[in-house]
Structures are given as C-alpha cells and as structure tokens.
Amino acid sequence: MLRLQKHLSLHLQDLLPVHRSASLVQLSLERALLSTAAATYSFPGHFAADDYLVSACGLTREQAAKAAKWISHWKSSSHADAVLSFLTGPALGLSKADIRLLVAKDPRILSCSVDNTLRIRVDRFHSYGFSAAQIISFVRVAPCSFRTFNIDQKLGFWMPLLGSPDKFLRIVRRNLYLVTSDLDKVVKTNIRLLQECGLSVQECSTMCVANPRLLTGNPDTTRAILVRADEMGVPRNTFLFRQAVTAVASLGPETMASKLEMMAKILRCSDAEVARMVQRNPLVLTRSRERIQRACEFLTNVVGVDTKYIQDRPTILMYSLERRLVPRHYVMKVLLEKGLIRKDQSFYSMVTLSDSVFCSKFVHPHKDVLPSLADAYASACNGKIAT
C-alpha cells in the first residue's frame, strides 16, 4: 500500500502544475485517486472462514478449524448468509443451537442452493406430512443426513409402513440406519425373512418400533436371530414368537445363556423348568438380574407364593415392583384384614388388571368402609406405603 501511495503521488505530480498550492481541490483529487486505485489494484477480499463459522454459526474454534476447509476458498460470505437466512427464517426456523449443530456436523450445508436444494427439500418433507417442528426434530437427530438422504426414496417407503412422522422420528432417534440402510438389499430382505416366519408387514412394523435393527441390520444377523428364536420352542405364527424374536434380538447368545442360568439360580429350578417359563413369556429374558431378584424376593417373602407360582406365571416379573406389585399387595392385604375379599383371592389376577379396572373392582367399592384406601393406594403407587 505504501508503494502504491508513492506511485500515486508521483502520478499526481505529473498531472498537476509544478507550482501548485495545497488547495482543497488538489487534496480531494488525491484522495479520490487513492481510493479508486485501491479498489482497482488490490487483491480480492479475504474471507476468514474460521471467524465466520465462529461468529455467524456459533461453532467453537476447534469445530471451525475442521469445517473451514469446505468454505475457505470463498471470496465472501454472501452465499452462506443466504443459506443461514433461509434456515433460520419462517420456512424452517432453526435456532442458533440448531445451526451450530447442523453446520458442525455438515459444513457443506452452507454451499447448498437455497432455491434448488434447501427449499425443495423442506417442501418434500412437508409433502410427507412433516410439520416445521418435525423437520427441525429431524435436523437435530440426523444433522448429517438432512442435506444428503433421498427423501422420496426413504420417506416414500417408511411413512406408509410406520404411519406417521412422529413414529419415524421416534425410531430414528434410536437408530439412524433407518435413514441410511439400503432398502432393497437390507430392509426389504429382512422383512421377507420375518414374513417367512409368519409375521405380517404390520407386525414387522410394530417390531421395528421396539427393535429397529431387525429391519436395518445385516440380513445374516436377522437369520441368526430367527434361528435362535425357533430354538426357544415357541411356535411360529403366534404372538409369543414375536416376543421371542424381540427378546433374542436384544440379547447376544452369551448374554441369553447367562440370563437363563441366573433365572435358574434365583428360582431354584432346573434348566428345563426355566425353558418352559421363558416359552410362556420370552420377554422375561429382557429383565435385569436386579429386577428379577427383587421381584422374586418380594413375591416369596412378602406375598408368600412359592417359586413354582412364579414359574407358571412369568408375566408377573414384567410388572414394576414399586408401581404395581407393592401397591396392589397393599390393597389386597387391607381388604383381607377387613374380610372384604375371599381368602383365596389370586394376587396374580389383581396384578394383571389395568389400573382403572383394578380401582373399580377393589378400591372404589369400599370407599364407605375404607374412605382413605384410594389415597393410600395412590401414595403406594408413588412409593409411599401407609403404616
């Protein structure tokens, strides 16, 4: 710049008379020429990518250093500004935190065309029933996929199968492979394998909610799961077989063997007896050792049933000890003490009722005799047992 100024001063000396005065006109002319020359001869404006990512997108310096390579060749921020304006504008309404997440995970989003890419993608989401809030939820869950995944291909398949954007988002939060898995080679192959075992497409959809990797995992893994489910001895084409597949899919072979051994020890029974118990309710295998141990101790030591009673009714282990077993037993104990139910009343039948039905049969009918029973039961369900 200093050399440029000297060059201009000499140039001015050639243009102006030798005996000139330092007039305001001369000074103004010099400044104008300097300004014009600076604009004409200087290098293109430098775009500080790191600074822009920090100040405009909210990235940390470390994040910005990683992301800057995608935009460091730019001459200005005008394109990125337009992208951010669209993303935070009325069409979508991303927050500063959303922008920070999205740009950190996928900085190339800043290179997208607003009209030819972003606006079209938002419109395609809307065409499948997604609200702006649900699109934002997708951005938060799968920021790396918002720009890249094939909306019509993926949503065109999943939405009819799952039925709603909320269900789709609920599964994607647990399994991003719903967006990235190959539909023909992986997902549809897994559905065919499950159908061969007697499951309907709708049942496959239901199972996907509980364990999405059944549909998005390697088909060889799905085949192995179905073989292990068959080995449990549960007939195909039954609701219990669906439970068996769900249980096996959530447990590796070693973990499953350990669970069976643990249950045999807690219930003091043979392997064959545990196998029959699991056939009655395969999902009991998904309960933790602690939950099974505590429930069995309560049932045998407090309720007074034996382990054979539990083996024949494994579903009783699926209920919450604190929110179901203990409160229901409290009501049963009070009613027995007052002689308001038969002495041979089945505890299991009381446990399996829905809360509304249980109250209508065992709580509300006794409000005149036991006016505090309803409140005591509610307190028990909250972990507070009346003494």
Automatic annotation (TrEMBL):
Coiled coil: none annotated. Belongs to the mTERF family. It comes from Miscanthus lutarioriparius. SMART domains: Mterf (SM00733). The keyword Transit peptide applies. It holds the Pfam family mTERF. This is Uncharacterized protein. Keywords: Transcription, Transcription regulation, Transcription termination, Transit peptide. GO terms for molecular function: nucleic acid binding. GO terms for biological process: DNA-templated transcription termination.
